[in-house]
Amino acid sequence: MSLSCELTAWKRLHADHPQMLEDLGKLHGVDLVPKSIARPGATMRIRCARLYGEQVVVTDLLWHQGDDDRTLFTVETGHRVLRAGQLLQRMQAQGLSADSSQSISLLLLQQLLGQTSMVLDRIDQGLTVSSQSLRDFQMNVGTNRARGAEDLSDVDSHLSTLNLPLSFVLQSLDDLEQAALRLRRAAAMQPTALPAGHVDGLIAQIEGMQRRARFTLERQRFHRRAAGETVAMSDLNVTKVFTVLWAAFIPGTALINWYGQNFRVMPELAWDGSLWTQLFAVLVLTAVPVWMVKQSGALR
């Protein structure tokens, strides 16, 4: 149940179900069950999002952080999200102590923030592709390369699927911020091997990522509204076409219905120029409603 790790200040555990989590807590003498109301020193739940190929994988990580001289406990409840090898490389690069649980906490939070950033990068790429498709559709309206509104169905579907990963990213960033604030409070309460500026820098990075994620969410909503308005405008253009066709064909239809009544007395049929007079009347009756439609502004 315990994963091998070269760092004695960090216990990396894995639990697939609640009973295993309780057994791990009894084994190590630590309450690993997260509470609905988080207290200082209690186990908290961190929502983790990372890329797995082309998919976004979301899992919960249980985080129990104590004083600097106490062991950090992490419990992965699903997909493995922590990388011990990367942690050791960062520790050597930044010159942090391997015996400090708070230093390990800092580096793990940086690692989780990096994974969340990669997910946000992928969402940004998807938004860029969708916005380019929407822009091409709008630029080609009224040209020979114009497409139908059904071509926007894939764009709208892709934009709607970004709601869920974006919500996971925002929740993950909120959890990481809470963990970083706990770490800063714990480091301020007692002397520690962790430089204070490192934690402040981590919190600043998280806050910057939160602003970026919220901007991405607003951007996604804007593009969804634009796609919906484009589809509505396309439907309106189709309605305009049928309106003009109705205005053009209704006079001729009325004339056909009139002379299809088989009246016994229709003297105008014997008049000279009767055919041309009737055709001229149909043209006038066709032009008048089309002109009225245009004057009303319905063809703009």
Provide a descriptive summary of the structure in words.
This protein is of the alpha+beta class and 300 residues long. It folds into two domains: 10-235, no CATH class; 236-296. It is built from seven helices and four strands; from the N terminus they run E-H-E-E-E-H-H-H-H-H-H. The chain has a four-stranded mixed sheet with strand order 1-4-3-2. Residues 1-5 have low confidence and may be disordered.
Topology:
Elements: E1 10-14, H1 18-28, E2 44-52, E3 55-64, E4 72-76, H2 84-94, H3 101-139, H4 153-161, H5 163-189, H6 196-259, H7 274-295
Parallel strand pairs: 1-4
Antiparallel strand pairs: 2-3, 3-4
Helix pairs in contact: 2-3, 3-4, 3-5, 3-6, 4-6, 5-6, 6-7
Instruction: Work out the strand percent.
Output: 5-15%
Number of domains as seen in the coordinates: 2
Q: What structural class do you assign from the helix and strand content?
A: alpha+beta
Widest beta sheet: strand line-up: 1-4-3-2
Low-confidence parts, pLDDT < 50 over ≥5 residues? 1-5
Number of strands: 4
Rounded Rg? 34 Å
Order of helices and strands: EHEEEHHHHHH
Mean pLDDT: 79
Largest sheet: 4 strands, mixed
User: What count of helical segments does DSSP give?
Assistant: 7
Shape descriptor: rod-shaped
Helix content: 55-70%
Q: What's the N-to-C terminus distance?
A: 70 Å
